[in-house]
Amino acid sequence: MAEPAPPLPPRDPRGPIAATIAAVARDGRVLLVRRAHPPDAGRWAFPGGKIEPGETVHAAAVRELHEETGVRGEALHVFDARDVYERDEHGALRRHYILIAVLCRWTGGEPVAGDDALEARWFALDELESQQLALSFGVAEVARQAARLAGAQV
Questions:
Q1: What tens digit of pLDDT does each residue of 75-125 get?
Q2: Are 114 and 67 in contact (CB under 8 A)?
Q3: Res. 154: pLDDT tops 50
């Protein structure tokens, strides 16, 4: 009889942690929230958050969209994934997130900040190029992808 496999080492609590972002493009604008909590507190990003155990990526995107903005949407498909590293003041890794971008179609509601958001509003794509706007890493690029894909869905 074969010897049993050795036990797996304990999972590293620093991650990676699966999370989703809801990319909603409507009338040439994208919906962003100003984050209230780390990572990137105070910066503009897509609504999103951790995927709960047993929850699909699409369901998590729709749930986070509504919790953070009050906007209702329909998840269409995954179109990108980004690694985000949260580090301490010495550069040591605190957490590793994998953000899964889901294109969502707006189905109702207007943005009102809720849950983990300080603000929520629609932005024209050209506004995202402003040096005055504090964006999370990669937001402008993902927004352009979402707008292109949303246009192709019409």
A1: 999 999 999 888 889 999 988 999 999 999 999 999 999 878 999 999 999
A2: yes
A3: no
105 by DSSP, 3-state: which? strand
**Hey, how many other C-beta atoms are within 10 angstroms of the C-beta on 124?**
12
CATH number at residue 94: 3.90.79.10
End-to-end Cα, the chain, rounded Å: 60
Domain count, the chain: 1
Cβ neighbour number for residue 110 with a 10 Å cutoff: 12
DSSP label at residue 52: P
- Taking CB atoms within 8 Å and a gap of at least 24, the contacts of 54-61 are 57/18, 57/20, 57/100, 57/102, 58/102, 60/19, 60/20, 61/20, 61/21, 61/22, 61/102, 61/104
Summarised one tens digit per residue, pLDDT across range 80-93 is 999 988 888 999 99
Catalytic residue annotation: 119
pTM: 0.86
SS3 assignment, position 153: helix
* 70 in a structural domain: yes
